[in-house]
Amino acid sequence: MASVQANGIRIVYETSGDPRDTPVLLVMGLGMQLTSWPDDFVDGLVEQGCFVIRFDNRDSGLSGKFDQFKPPNLPLAYLKKLVGWPQRPAYTLADMAHDARGLLDALGVARAHVVGASMGGMIAQIFAARFAERTLSLTSIMSSSGRRGLPGPSGAARAAMLRRPASPAGREQVIEHMAAVFRVIGSPAFPTPQRQLRALIERSLERSVYPAGVARQMVAIVADGDRTPLLRRIACPALVIHGAADPLVPVACGVDTAQAIAGARLHIIEGMGHDLPPQLIERLLALIDGHLHGKMEPQARTPAAQAPTGGRDIHL
């Protein structure tokens, strides 16, 4: 894997496709790695004429770690959020957006389409708002504006995210724990086959395991707060994709995100949860292809009879 010094830390990245093609920067979510982007999704973007840039966020994968900070107290962080007390995260989501800009600087990429999933969608939102001159378009997938009052995770999803493996040092226990989490938050209508899910988890564990980084990233999310004022500054074309069955970041969060961005297009996929299941890769590629290449209808609401099967487009 290649790496660069960006924003003062080591960022590990991987590129796919022809550097002369349209740059697309992929930003992954909480605790995930650049390899968490499905191979079929990356290959599909390359086939559409994109130069795809993936990277490990700080404190995850093979990028720089923040061991100088102790693992945070997550229950205390959530309590502080509820009562409005100030947080002291090791770093912020804005810092992570600066990492992404630093990576583009190091690669000599002047402007890119930015696609983010979950926490990566939050980072992508900040990037598009603060670095408008570097952003060709924004795609925010299963993410949120962070506005106070939006619904939070279901009880099952919250419990799954906070639960620890029965034996953190046992490989099989960790695999089963992660599989259980994905089963809770994943797409009920598009379940990833068990064998494929296990292979993805094993691939991730072989590359990197770093729970402390996940906790610090989680506090960065909690501390970030309401991004609505930033979202109102976004002027590039924006697409918001969200699953109607997302138990971790409910669909109302996607609707709210799209409402805050002028001219944003919202696409809700029925039966999709908080993952990128193999059954939806072609649909996601079609949506992003239309967005990146200006093939989407810019105005009236798409009639239900013409909407893609299992999804609905909402023009705001």
Fold and architecture overview:
It holds the Pfam family Abhydrolase_1. This is Pimeloyl-ACP methyl ester carboxylesterase. The chain is an alpha/beta fold and 316 residues long. It has a single domain (2-156, 211-315), classed as Alpha/Beta hydrolase fold, catalytic domain (Rossmann fold). It is 39% helix and 17% strand. The chain has 11 helices and 9 strands. A hairpin with a 2-residue loop joins strand 1 and strand 2 (9-16). Helix 3 crosses helix 4 (119-130). The model is unreliable at 298-309 (pLDDT under 50).
Weakly predicted, low-confidence segments: 298-309
Name the helicity range: 25-40%
How many DSSP E strands?
9
Radius of gyration, CA atoms, in whole angstroms: 18 Å
| CATH top level assignment | Alpha Beta
Terminal Cα span:
41 Å
What is the typical, i.e. mean, pLDDT?
91
Q: In sequence order, what are the helices and strands, one letter per element?
A: EEEHEHHEHEHHHHHEHEHE
Query: Could you name the CATH topology?
Result: Rossmann fold
- The CATH architecture is 3-Layer(aba) Sandwich
Strand content: 15-25%
SS-based class: alpha/beta
List the domain count as a whole number.
1
Number of helices: 11
> In the CATH hierarchy, what is the superfamily?
Alpha/Beta hydrolase fold, catalytic domain
Q: Please, what is the oligomeric state?
A: single chain
The gross shape turns out to be globular
- Write out the strand line-up for the largest beta sheet, numbering strands in chain order: 1-2-4-3-5-6-7-8-9
Largest sheet: 9 strands, mixed
